[in-house]
What we know:
Blueprint: H1 8-15, H2 28-31, H3 40-55, H4 59-70, H5 76-85, H6 88-95, H7 101-109, E1 113-115, E2 118-119, E3 132-135, H8 139-158, E4 173-176, E5 181-184, H9 199-205
Antiparallel strand pairs: 1-2, 1-3, 3-5, 4-5
Amino acid sequence: MSRYRGPRLKKIKRLGNLPGLTTKRLPKNDQKKKKIKKSQYRSRLEEKQKLRFHYGLTERQLLNYVRIASKTKGSTGQVLLQLLEMRLDNIIFRLGMASTIPGARQLVNHRHILVNGCLVDIPSYRCKPQDIITTKDEQKTRALIQNSLASSSQNKLSSQKKLSSQKKLPEHLTLYSSQYKGLVKQIIARRGVGLKIEELRVVEYYSRQT
């Protein structure tokens, strides 16, 4: 199954806020959902879909991440979230260098991003502690990043009292905006994940395939 390229508001209306997918928000009238009794399968499916659409993954990619997480020491659900959060496209998004994960993926694909001084054009590249994320020293590249950083800063100022966790810089990252540079300090903790998700339901959904 290919990566989703359809209407984004349609997805957040059904699944809730997906900051990695789109900066758009539903009107207040549409945000109030009627409580519907869901089957266990539907609940697991929706949590899986949240992960898939937020991080911009294909079905096969997400299944591969679940398989890797299940073979890694520790809680499968937590390891899964760490694997997804440490992707290069997501790191760029969380640093504020792109407004969405698809936007961050485009920066990487178009060869604007360097990791530890080396050009990386693979959005799924897994970042590690002490990795330094920088941009090419080109006017066009810097302009793209500056626009996103400025937009992110304005959003923070306009909603200072009700700042969403998705807009805060997570503890495992440091941003040097004047240098267009970010630092990955450590592996992300569960509380720093930028999505409201019940990861155990995702693991349960894939339990027969792993």
